[in-house]
Specification:
The structure is a single chain. Helices cover 80% and strands 0% of the residues. The chain folds into two domains: 12-199, Growth Hormone, Chain: A, CATH 1.20.1250.20; 219-413, Growth Hormone, Chain: A. The two termini are 16 Å apart. The protein is built from 18 helices and no strands. The longest helix is centred in the C-terminal third of the chain and has 33 residues, at 308-340. The chain is an all-alpha fold.
Length: 415
């Protein structure tokens, strides 16, 4: 299949799973944007739980949701694709239904709802990547994954914006948003299931018999990914913490940075991914992402040394560099894993990658908030050093265990 050298919307939609699947992604992300950013507020406002209890239940749900990933990987390796995507959406619909049925003050039902939401949120990325890897190949796959991320971020932002407008209605509005979210998940699940995308286990089994080398463990790549994903929480956690508590800036600044980050991802994810994929290997691009992200951390450190009148605008400017690093990272990481893994273990490889991503997202808030009180050098210097080490490890890692099964894939995909 030809690589998308010029971004053609129809070809991009086809490589991403088709029009119905694109609509399913948009509807699912729109529903997620309506509730996910305000789930903590729902627990505190509607269910009258304390903030620490609500946050603990949400964290437990996210972490416990990671436990399901090995099973999801095995399910994918049996050939399921659109069915797993639809199941991840249905599980989230069940979580929202439990949320709506939870009486005020009942923390255990809220925790169960958070668990189902966590399972769906963790299972979806691996299932989606496996589906795209089945319908698209080579560099076309990279662009398709980037397109899906841009579409999802746009819909998430639209949902969050709509929910923000509706929040003036208080607890009643939050319940209404939850109900709409559940309906969105159900509609998205039906659309995703109707695509009927499956892999061919027989071909995968034949590929397994030809592969004398074991499947790649990618330990270095997965460990580095835990550090890389910290960049995803910088606009939501690190920058608001620094701007509001240290520089005493208006909350408008963190909000504006978050919106700008979303706009950059939506507008640049596809062209940046397509541009770099034509010139560099995925591993080189991923290493470059680490360098750019680390440079942004050092930029935040330098911005913090300026006078307060200049520090806040400087942080906002450096956040653009961080967003570019995030875009480069997101456009290469999943694609590299999909290219390295032989067909018969693609699901398990993507599941392990999602485990590392989920773990990084789970621990990064605690790490960031623990480093921040020790000063900018500890926070930004520590993150920059860890990211540079990770980028170096990714660049120097060899793709052992993929010589026979991976040679064919790299020749086809240019990993």
């Amino acid at each position: 299949m030809a690589t998308i050298t010029r971004i053609q919307p129809r070809a991009l939609v086809r490589a991403s799973g088709g029009p119905r699947y694109a609509v399913a992604l948009a509807v699912d992300a729109l529903g997620t944007g309506l509730l996910r950013p305000f789930l903590l507020l729902y627990g505190v406002t509607v269910l009258r739980l304390s903030a620490p209890v609500t946050g603990t239940a949400m964290t437990a749900g996210i972490v416990t949701g990671l436990v399901c990933m090995p099973a999801v990987g095995r399910w994918l390796d049996r050939g399921a694709r659109s069915t797993v995507v639809a199941a991840s959406m249905l599980v989230r619909a069940l979580g929202v239904a439990l949320l709506l049925a939870t009486p005020a003050g009942h923390v255990w039902l809220f925790a169960m709802a958070a668990l189902f939401l966590g399972i769906g949120n963790q299972a979806w990325p691996a299932a989606h990547a496996a589906l795209v890897a089945t319908v698209a190949h080579g560099r076309e796959r990279d662009t398709a994954l980037a397109g899906a991320r841009a579409l999802r971020n746009a819909a998430l932002g639209a949902g969050a914006l709509l929910a923000t407008v509706c929040l003036a209605g208080g607890a009643t509005a939050l319940r209404a948003l939850a109900a709409v979210t559940a309906l969105a998940y159900l509609a998205a699940a039906a659309l995703a299931w109707s695509v009927h995308v499956h892999a061919h286990p027989a071909k995968a089994a034949a590929a397994k018999e030809r592969d004398d080398q074991p499947a790649p463990r990618m330990r270095t790549l997965l460990a580095a990914n835990v550090i890389y994903v910290f960049c995803l929480n910088v606009p939501e956690i690190a920058l608001p913490l620094v701007l509001v508590t240290r520089f005493h800036a208006s909350p408008v600044w963190p909000a504006a940075i978050f919106v700008a980050n979303t706009v950059l991802v939506v507008t640049l994810q596809i062209p940046v991914t397509a541009l770099l994929s034509r010139r560099l290997s995925r591993r080189t691009v991923l290493s470059l992402a680490g360098v750019v992200i680390a440079a942004s951390y050092l930029g935040f450190l330098a911005a913090g040394s300026l006078e307060h009148g200049w520090a806040t605008p400087a942080v906002a400017a450096v956040s653009v560099v961080c967003a570019i690093g995030e875009i480069i990272y997101a456009g290469s990481a999943t694609a590299l894993v999909a290219a390295l893994a032989p067909d018969h273990v693609l699901g398990r490889a993507l599941a392990r990658f999602q485990l590392s991503t989920g773990f990084g997202l789970a621990v990064s808030p605690a790490v960031i908030t623990a480093l921040a009180p020790h000063g900018p050098a500890a926070l930004w210097g520590g993150l920059a050093a860890a990211t540079l080490i990770s980028a170096s490890a990714v660049a120097t890692e060899t793709d052992r265990g993929t010589r026979l099964g991976g040679r064919r894939r790299r020749a086809r995909a240019g990993s």
